[in-house]
Design a protein that fits this description.
By secondary structure, chain A is α/β, with parallel strands linked by helices. Chain A is built from eight helices and 14 strands. Chain A is 31% helix and 24% strand. Chain B has a single domain, classed as Serine Threonine Protein Phosphatase 5, Tetratricopeptide repeat (Alpha Horseshoe). By secondary structure, chain B is mainly alpha-helical. Classes of the chains: A alpha/beta, B mainly alpha. At the A-B interface, helix 2 and helix 3 of A face helix 4 and helix 5 of B.
């Protein structure tokens, strides 16, 4: 695999350098080189919205910094949670005096580091509340939803939380809205080829040629089954068959659909999958209020896609429709 | 001898750092089988930064543990940063006002570390993690104290239980943390966090026992 870098151990820092320089209209540095913030943050009186996680998921997480979106992000090493200190510094960068909503994904390291950072912030009088995304259906059975991982549904959670905060919502309201966003969102991934962390140099899992891994996670966590590679239509059927009954989604529901590439799959193929997904959702009587197709939450160079569907209610719809500006989502 | 002073304990930090540096490749290799293969790299990074921070010598064991915890919690992310950061920080807090570390003080330190870890991690014994070492090791130490064994014997009991705990992770399926992605496929390899935790406890036990022995020799002469 041929990659672009100078030294593998410098990749995260140099990505940050490039990002800050390319998007200085939206993003600014903070005293902590691994914490970036929205240029206007902290916005006085507004609830700060923070996220963070390991690198390698572009545009997540820093790509969602922006107006009416995320205020500050803690940037970890590739696939490694940022330390508590970074989350804490992100809280400080985002706090406009009305508290901070930390909206992140359900991974062991992030859970621990956020928990410690929240305690550190409390000692300083900054109130931080959290929502832990767990939209990845195949990662645990429904009765163990608390163990499910957070995947591309996090993007919709940030959109909703960011909008509610921008509308002047209190910390409690922002948290409740973001929690409802993730509670009404279901995702699934299909892996076509593995990803490689450049510093490691080789993939630490494999997907045999001619097969696909159903339910793969954002770091190559194994899915629920490996099956022969299918057509786009069959893939869409398989994915919707798993996620739609889980909520469940039903006839008449309004939905947001997000198809995200994992990094190594062309946009062309993502649109083909989206076409198939939309046909199935219409057949099931769902109406699609808004859709997103593209690399919204990737996994380095992994081949494959995730499908995310969110069921709307009036509050969520208002937040999804609220205008926003970030490099990853508008 | 039945105790070392907190000041004498300071050099335990250098023994721990050396143990981690010497086992960097070993820890990465076992992690590579079921994880990212970076456990040794990250442990070595944290402990090596700590060595630079310590300078010539920390004032005491408590002081050294606090510096180590600070590095792990602020500069090393993932899971090992908060887990080992919390372990060393809570142990440092427990003994910071203790002059002589005898078997009772050491036991309280271990118990405090174990409890703080259990409160942070959602993993329980049997999940193929660091908890499979710290829980039985602390219990074995406590039982040895209750049986009125010497400090040295208590430490040996702790190290033995840590090794048994580490080896028992070989037959477990990871239920928590990064290796849990492999579920059943994670059986057959010991857990890297359990291995590093065992290495730390064994090194602490050996280091203190060497000090107790040399102090005894010194007091006899």
């Amino acid at each position: 695999m041929q990659r672009i870098f100078n030294r593998p151990e410098d990749m995260v820092n140099e990505m940050i350098e490039g990002f800050v320089r390319a998007h200085s209209n939206l993003v600014a540095r903070t005293a902590n080189p691994r914490v970036l913030k929205y240029r206007q943050a902290p916005v006085k009186g507004k609830v700060g919205v923070v996220t963070g996680g390991g690198s390698g998921h572009k545009p997540a997480f820093i790509g969602y910094i922006g107006r009416n979106m995320v205020d500050a992000v803690a940037v970890g090493e590739i696939f490694t949670s940022p330390p508590a200190q970074m989350f804490y510094d992100a809280f400080r960068a985002a706090d406009g005096g009305s508290g901070v909503a930390c909206l992140y994904g359900n991974y062991a390291g992030d859970n621990m580091n956020v928990k410690m950072a929240v305690e550190m912030a409390a000692e300083d009088g900054i109130e931080v509340k959290t929502v832990v995304a767990n939209d990845d259906v195949p990662s645990a059975p429904k009765e163990r939803r608390d163990r499910r991982r957070g995947v591309a549904g996090e993007v919709l959670m940030w959109k909703v939380g960011g909008a509610r905060a921008a509308m002047g919502g209190s910390l409690g309201e922002v948290i409740a809205e973001a929690q409802r966003a993730i509670d009404n969102t279901r995702s699934i991934g299909i892996g076509l080829h593995p990803c490689t962390i450049p510093e490691v140099g080789h993939a630490n899992f494999s997907i045999e040629a001619g097969t696909m891994e159903v339910g793969i996670g954002h770091h190559g966590e194994p899915g629920i089954e490996v099956v022969p590679l299918e057509t786009a239509g069959a893939m869409a059927r398989r994915m919707t068959d798993i996620i739609l009954p889980d909520l469940p989604f039903g006839r008449g529901d309004e939905a947001v659909v997000l198809v995200s590439g994992l990094g190594g799959t062309p946009l062309m193929e993502q649109y083909i999958l989206y076409f198939e997904v939309e046909k199935i959702l219409e057949e099931k009587g769902l109406s699609i209020h808004r859709s997103y197709v593209g690399n919204y939450f990737s996994s380095l160079d992994m081949g494959g896609v995730t499908l995310t569907v969110m069921r709307l209610d009036a509050g969520l719809k208002e937040c999804i429709d609220h205008e926003a500006d970030s490099t990853g989502l508008r | 001898m039945t105790a070392i002073t907190n000041e004498q304990g300071a050099s335990i930090l250098f023994d721990l750092i050396k143990a981690i540096q010497d086992h960097k490749q070993y820890l990465s290799d076992i992690d590579g089988a079921i994880g990212d293969g970076d456990h040794g790299i990250n442990m070595n990074k944290g402990f090596t930064i700590c060595k630079e921070r310590l300078g010539k010598a920390p004032e005491s064991l408590a002081h050294g543990f606090m510096i180590l915890a600070g590095v792990l919690m602020t500069e090393i992310g993932g899971s090992l940063g908060p887990l080992y950061g919390t372990l060393f920080r809570s142990m440092a807090r427990e003994i910071e006002n203790v002059k002589d570390i005898d078997k009772i003080a050491f036991g309280r330190m271990m118990q405090c570390g174990k409890e703080k870890l259990a409160a942070l991690s959602e993993a329980r014994q049997g999940d193929k993690t660091i908890m499979d070492v710290i829980i039985p090791a602390e219990r074995a130490y406590r039982e040895a104290v209750e049986e009125d064994k010497s400090f040295a014997q208590c430490l040996e009991a702790m190290a033995r239980a840590a090794r048994e705990g580490r080896d028992a992770t070989r037959d477990m399926a990871a239920a928590y943390g990064r290796a849990s992605r492999l579920g059943e496929r994670s059986r057959g390899v010991i857990d890297a966090g359990a291995a590093s935790c065992c290495l730390i406890l064994e090194t602490m036990a050996r280091s203190i026992n060497e000090k107790l022995t040399s102090l005894a020799a010194g007091s006899n002469s």
